[in-house]
Amino acid sequence: MSEEYKSLHQIIDFRMEKLNKLREAGVNPYPHKYEPTHKSQYILDHYDELEDQTVCVAGRIMALRKMGKASFAHVMDSAGRIQIFIRRDDVGEDIYNHFKLLDIGDYAGVEGEIFTTKTGEITIRTNKLTILAKSIRPLPMVKEKDGQVFDAFSDKEQRYRNRHLDLIVNPEVREIFVKRARIIQEVRQALDEQGFLEVETPVLQPLYGGANARPFTTYHNSLDQKLYLRIADELYLKRLIIGGFDRVYEIAKDFRNEGMDRNHNPEFTMLEFYWAYADYEDCMKIVEDMVRRSAESVNALKVKWGEMSIDLSKPFARKPILDLLKDVTGHNLVESSDDDMRSICKEHHIDVGKNANYGQMLDELMGTLVEPNLVQPVFVVDYPKAISPLAKTHRNGNPDLVERFELFIGGTEFANAFTELNDPVDQRQRLEAQAALKERGDEEAQPVDENFIQALEAGMPPTGGVGLGIDRLVMLLTGNRWIKDVILFPAMRIDNQ
User: Fold this and answer.
1) CB–CB of 482/286 below 8 Å?
2) Is residue 160 domain-resident?
3) Are 417 and 405 in contact (CB under 8 A)?
4) What's the chain's average pLDDT?
5) Cα–Cα dist 463/240, whole Å
6) Domains: count for the chain
């Protein structure tokens, strides 16, 4: 009976029997080391120069056709797959019997000459076989015939929970994470070339700040105090600017205790960089260049994202947020009271609750009426001061506006940036206003960070700062609409089964 018709318990017992037979035959099914000479794809790409030469490959067996005196298998390594041919007369009866104890999922090292079968498939004629790891638990049953895949391992939740299996049986998933690494490398290189220094700041913080979000809390026993997982790197990176570094950046994990959806995971990767003597205009230029060169690195200047076709090759547009909101509401929202905002939300059938403050209502209007229509790249600029506690008042003379931009692509926010507020008196007042919102029930408002304000009182030069979501950038450039598809191990509810 084939494994297809056995229960999981039966399969594991059957494979354990094979494992014991190998050990009884004097075979170590878990050796310490193996040295392959070539990757599978290199052999396929360089067949003309490797024909009849001896090579060694190592990988996981993904297909088996066992026959009496000769058999075929496909071995998959990190580069791809290659067929092997093994014959009893070539390897001897003992080795061939060992091969017949192998299953799909086992690791093997194969040494042999390169040739082409009658059907034209490049193959290794095995003269030496080494078992490298016996697989006890079977892989998901995936069948292939004539290039078509049947019974694919496609259940999203199971794939996220068992990423190791997802990577094994869905090779295209591996390519997403290869591209992710390439994109991060390109982002890092773009900043390094501009003279930025990569630094590291604390994950565990005595006080959270730098964004409007609920934190995760923990407790340090030796210090006997509550600590928070950082929600942003901003306030520590600014201290480095105060300390004399001109250009710093960090690519790091941040944590926000908020809802989960296609764009949000509680643990996510952010880039933040801070640039002394620069402003938000300078930051726009470097962000646009960074996004474009990252797209070029994975051949994604023009990308299909869901139903949207996005072109990253053209200059990014710039539009003031209040102009965008006025176009859809007919109101100048910077002059609107909380009661006015509530009426406008009601007019557009947006339920904000009786305790919502100005910033929360503006965010709802923006997210509902404007953001879904921002398909091509656009810098939304010049935000109300009331929702931007860390940004500098606009130099155009309007005291209600700050120099801030957010980058939107495909209806999604990718970056948030300011000409940073470096006036410690103004900063204290802004954070105290945030603390008042928190007292009134806004769980995402920021607390007053006395240590940061004291650092700011030592003097910080004019500075531009940016936060850019790495996960969302990878989503865009790989054509994925769900953040869990670009995080190797996304957050999941505990499976009690």
Assistant:
1) no
2) no
3) yes
4) 93
5) 12
6) 2
Full-model pTM: 0.91
Residue 323, domain member (yes or no): no
Assign 5 a pLDDT band (cuts: 50, 70, 90).
low
Task: Write the DSSP symbol of residue 187.
Answer: H
Q: What is the pLDDT, as a whole number, of residue 497?
A: 60
Nearest CA among 133, 377, 370, 416 for reference residue 271:
416
Give how far Cα 395 sits from Cα of 280, 285, 335, 398, Å: 12, 19, 19, 7
Tens digits of per-residue pLDDT, 434-449?
Answer: 888 888 888 888 888 9
Residue 150 in this model has a pLDDT that exceeds 60: no
pLDDT exceeds 90 at position 146:
no
Q: Are residues 123 and 182 in the same domain?
A: no
Query: Across the chain, which distance is largest between two alpha carbons, in Å?
Result: 88
pLDDT (tens digit per residue) in 63-104: 999 998 999 999 999 999 999 999 999 999 999 999 999 999
What was the pLDDT predicted at 3?
Answer: 67
| SS3 call for 293 | helix
- Contact 385/427 with Cβ under 8 angstroms? no
Q: What is the DSSP string of 419-457?
A: EB---HHHHHHHHHHHHHHHHTT-TTSPPP-HHHHHHHH
pLDDT (0 to 100) of residue 147:
56
In terms of phi and psi (left: phi > 0; alpha: psi -120 to 50; beta: otherwise), the region of 354 is alpha
- Full residue range of the structural domain in which residue 101 is found: 3-139
Q: Cβ(58)–Cβ(77) under 8 Å?
A: yes
Segment holding 185, helix H or strand E: helix 171-193
Name the pairing type of β-strands 247-255 and 404-409: unpaired
Are residues 94 and 180 part of one domain? no
Q: Please state which of the ranges 374-378, 449-453, 465-469 shows the lowest mean pLDDT.
A: 449-453
pLDDT of residue 185 exceeding 90, the answer is yes
Would you put residue 479 in left (φ > 0), alpha (ψ -120 to 50) or beta? left
135 and 177 fall within a common domain: no
User: Given this model, what pLDDT does residue 284 score?
Assistant: 98
Q: 18 to each of 9, 91, 106, 354, how far by Cα in Å?
A: 15, 20, 12, 67
Q: Tokens for 299?
A: 């051949």
Distances (CA, A) of 171 to 39, 122, 168, 205, 472: 15, 20, 6, 39, 22
Q: Does residue 430 contact residue 404 with C-beta atoms inside 8 Å?
A: no
Helix, strand, coil percentages for the chain (3-state, nearest 5): 35, 25, 35
At 215-253, the pLDDT tens digits run 999 999 999 999 999 999 999 999 999 999 999 999 999
Residues in the chain: 497
Which pLDDT score is estimated for 290? 98
Residues 194 and 301 in one domain: yes
Return the ∠ at Cα 255 (arms to 249 and 258), rounded to 5°: 135
Q: Distance between CA atoms of 489 and 138, rounded to whole angstroms? A: 21
* CA dist., res. 75 & res. 63, Å (int): 7
The verdict on 105 and 196 lying in the same domain is no
